[in-house]
Amino acid sequence: MRLIATSLFLIALAVTFSKVTASPARPEIPTTIYDPNPSHIWNRLYAALLIREDRHGTQVGADSLDPPLWPETEHLLAGSSHQQALRVLDEFLRTHAENLIQDPIKRALLQHDLWAVFDWSVEQFSSIDRPQYAKPQYGKEKKELQVRLAEVLRRLALTPEAVKSLPDNYAQALALGAFAREYDPANPERPFLPPDLFDPHGPWAGITPSPEFAGLGVAKMHIFNLSGRSSFLVFVKLPGGHKATMDYFQALWNFPQPWVQETNSDQAAVNPALPSFPAGTQVALVRRMNLFDNQGNLVSANITESVQIRVYHTITTTAERFFSGTLADTIKNSGQDFYEFKLSRPLLFSAKNGGLRAVARDEREFATFQTKGGDPIEGTEPSARPDSINEAPLELQRCVWCHSGGGVRSLNSREALLRPNRMQMEPGNSDYASIYWGDSSAIDWKQNHYDWGLLNGYWKASSHPQ
Length: 466
Fold this sequence. Notes:
Number of strands: 10
Number of domains: 2
Distance between the termini: 24 Å
Order of helices and strands: HEEHHHHHEHEHEEEEHEHEHH
Strand content: 5-15%
Helix content: 25-40%
Structural class: alpha+beta
Radius of gyration: 23 Å
C-alpha cells in the first residue's frame, strides 16, 4: 500500500471541511517548539494534540518522546479537547500550513508525533472488565480525528532523498563533545555516551535476530508498544572488548540446556543457570526513528530517539523479575547503574548536543510503556496510580521494572542468543557499514499491522472531512 503518487498532490480537490460543534472554549497551551511565535499553527497543533496538564496545571508531554495518551484515554475524543483538536487540524489543512515550514527535520518530527496520535486513536478502547470505568466507544470521534490526521501526515511526508539526508544526531552529539564518553565507577551518577557504540570494529557487539525467528526483533515489547514507529538495537560490551563479547555469545549458544520447563506450566523458559557475564559489562538499548516517505514506504531514519545504558558494577544472584522493598532496593539488588539519553526537539532544531539530553536523576514522567491502559491524568486507574507528574516514579528507576535480575537474568534479549536461533556471527564483508546490524523487524511488522493498513486506506480513499 502506497501514498497517492506525487502528481496527485497537485490535483485541485474540492474539499469542504466540516463545521465543528460549538463547545466551551478550552484554553490553548502555549509552546514554541516549532517556531518562536506561540501562535504559529504548527505550535498550536502540537500543543492541542500532544501537550496536556495534570490536576495541578503542570504541563505533561511538552517535549516527551511519546504523547501522554493511554489505551483508555478519553482526551482528544471527548468534550472540548476533541473539538479543539478538530479545529486546529481543520485550520492546518484549510490554510495548507504544511508549506509554512520546509525544514526536513521539523517536518519529520511533526510527522512522527502525529503518527503516534493516529496509532493511539486506532488502539484506544473502552474498559469492559471494570464497568464502573467503562467509556463510550467513540467510533465517530475517532474517525473525525483520523481522517484529518491522515491528510496532515500525507502532506508532511518527505521525499526518499530527504529522509536519507536527515542528520545522524548521535554522531553530532559525539562531535560536539556534549557528554562524557565512558563510565566512571568513581562517579557513577555521571551520564556517558559511548563514542564507539555504532563502530562495527569497536568493543560493542550488536545482537541480531535470527531470520527464522525474527518476529519483533530482539526488543519485542518495545517495538510492540510503539507499534513499529521506532526500531530498537541492542548492544553488549564485556570488559574484554568485542572478542570477549562474541566469545560470551558463543558460550551461551553452546550451553547444553538453554531452555527448561516453566514451573506449573508446559511452556519453555530460559534456563536460570545460564552462565553470566562478568562485572563491568554494559548493555545499551538504542531507539531509532522510523518514518514513511511521500511514496508511502516505511523507512528508517538516521535520528536516534533515545539511548538507555545499563552498567553491571556487580553481578548479583538476584532472580529474574525479583522485587523487594522500594525501587531503589530493587536497583541495588540488580547490581546495575542506569542511564538514559532522550531526544529533545528544541535541542535538535537548534543543532545543540545532537538533539540529545541526559535524563536527570530526579526527573519524573508518566510511563506509557507497559502500562495497563488507565489514564493517570484522567484518574481512570482504580489503583493508587499517580495523577500528578510530581507523584510519578523517577524515570531512571523505571528500567528496573523489566530488568531487575542479576547479571544475564536481566538481559531480556538473551533469548536471541540461544539455540535454536542462529549463532551470532560477524559479517563476512569487512567493509560493512557502521550500522550493518540495522534491524528491519519493526518495519516488517508494521507493514502488516492494522493501524498502518487503516492509514493507507484513508490515503487510497482520499478521505477528507466533508
